[in-house]
Amino acid sequence: MAWIPIFDVYLLGKLTINKFVGWILVICIFLTGTYTTTINGVETIHTILPESISCTISTIYNIAFLGLFIYAIVKYNRLKKEKIASEQSIQSTTNQQQAQELQGNINNQATIQDSTNLNNL
């Protein structure tokens, strides 16, 4: 959906904050848009809101979009760092378990070796 023009804006709002913000961004796009119709060669431009209100909403939308975009980048980097830390923690735990198993195997071999030496006496 991120490659579809209106859905990318919705996803930005949804993934950074929630679905409600995503829908508000989509509604702002439609409220600030201009629509043209051509009938018998006569082109007519239509807007849903008056020009002054449309410009204000457009400015607010652009600032919100830029802020959400920056927040999305920060959030992505934070998640990436958490993932790396989690993977390192898992790797450390795995290494500790492997070291404990290896130590247990060495102890078992030493015990078997001692038992064999005692039997040979």
Question: What's the quick description here?
Answer:
The chain has 121 residues and is mainly α. 79% of the residues lie in helices and 10% in strands.
Average pLDDT works out at 81
Radius of gyration from the alpha-carbon trace, in angstroms:
32 Å
What spatial order of strands do you see in the largest sheet? 1-2
Uncertain segments: none
* Main β sheet profile: 2 strands, antiparallel
Element-by-element helix/strand order: HHEEH
Q: Tell me, what's the shape?
A: rod-shaped
Strand-residue proportion:
5-15%
* Total number of helices: 3
Q: What oligomeric state is this?
A: single chain
Distance between the termini: 78 Å
Total beta strands: 2
Give the fraction of residues assigned to helices: over 70%
Helix-and-strand structural type: mainly alpha
Could you characterize what this model shows?
By secondary structure, the chain is mainly alpha-helical. The chain has 3 helices and 2 strands. It has a two-stranded antiparallel ribbon. The chain starts with a helix and ends with a helix. 6% of the residues are buried. The model has no long low-confidence stretch (mean pLDDT 81).
Topology:
Blueprint: H1 5-16, H2 19-32, E1 34-39, E2 42-47, H3 51-120
Antiparallel strand pairs: 1-2
Helix pairs in contact: 1-2, 1-3, 2-3
